Amino acid sequence: DLQICQHRAPTCCTKKMEESYQAAVRRERTQSIQALNFELKYMIVGHITAFQEAFESLLRFAENRTSSLFETAYRPMAKEAAEPVKELFTDISLYILGAETTVESAVLRFFDSLFPLVYSRLINPGITDLSEDYTECLRLTRQDINPFGHYSKNMVTELSKSLWASRMLSQALSLGIEVINTTEHAALTKECSRALVKMQYCPHCQGLTLIRPCVGYCLNVMRGCLASVSELDAQWREFISTLEYLTNEMAASHDLEIALSGIWNSINEAILHAQLNGPQLSATVDKVCGQPKQQEGNLSSASIVPVKEVTETQTFTMAHTSLNNKRREFINYMKRSRTFYASIAERLCDGDLVMRDSSTCWNGEDVV
Prior knowledge:
One of its GO terms (biological process) is positive regulation of canonical Wnt signaling pathway. By secondary structure, the protein is mostly helical. It has 15 helices and no strands.
């Protein structure tokens, strides 16, 4: 009643043993593919973590730099500006991680929150009553009167270019993990598990427990079994090319590090622009939002303080170098894995599974 290991000679197998063998080859094949995948998956997961740490380090640096701008140059509004600054960098971090948000909405929301502070603390420092309605009116007016000139739009453009590649790379790495996990659990067909039993265990039914499959025979069986997996070859090569493109984009003109480190300067220029145009802004705001309560006595608007570069360059340089090195190391490794899915049958037939240095091997029917 044997279905797979049929042979003219006497046999020591039963149908139940064949069923056990089929369960064994399924388990072994999953384990061997997992072992092959392990290094590749380990490298990708490791780099997802490393990139994320480097991103977070750069974001923290940029956020600290922006916070210190308010503390040194715009102290009257520093305390109230802390929350909008924090929100801006949280939004940027979420965008890189793939959240359903845009750089434009994050930056414009920040400037919406910033305008009431700039207006009431720097342009008209005598305002005492900043009610919710008046603050909301200032926020809405910001979009129409554009107090920050072209600086807010420039910041959107610069950040969008550089953060886009980082966001895409983050998503691409997660996709790579998903692909690898899916191939690990690809179900073996009935024909495949029978072919694997015939190759690995049918010799045992003849008492030939030490004989191993011939190399060519193993390759034929494995290629048949893994046809659906090896079909990923073209897409995997394209995936590696896309990773290469994204890492080059990140390192080229749309440099993430430069864009993040320049946020404080863009905000500073935007605030200076608003202060220089204070009288015109006040006239427009008075028409739209009405005149708020003022303190007695005429307080001059806060003096414009040009800000010198914040000196934290050593931290920034380390994070920048670290990210560049990780990019290079990662893409070089991934380029070596280009043929991963094309060569999966060869790799499974390598090592202990087949007979390499002996004159005799199992061809599926007999010892040759």
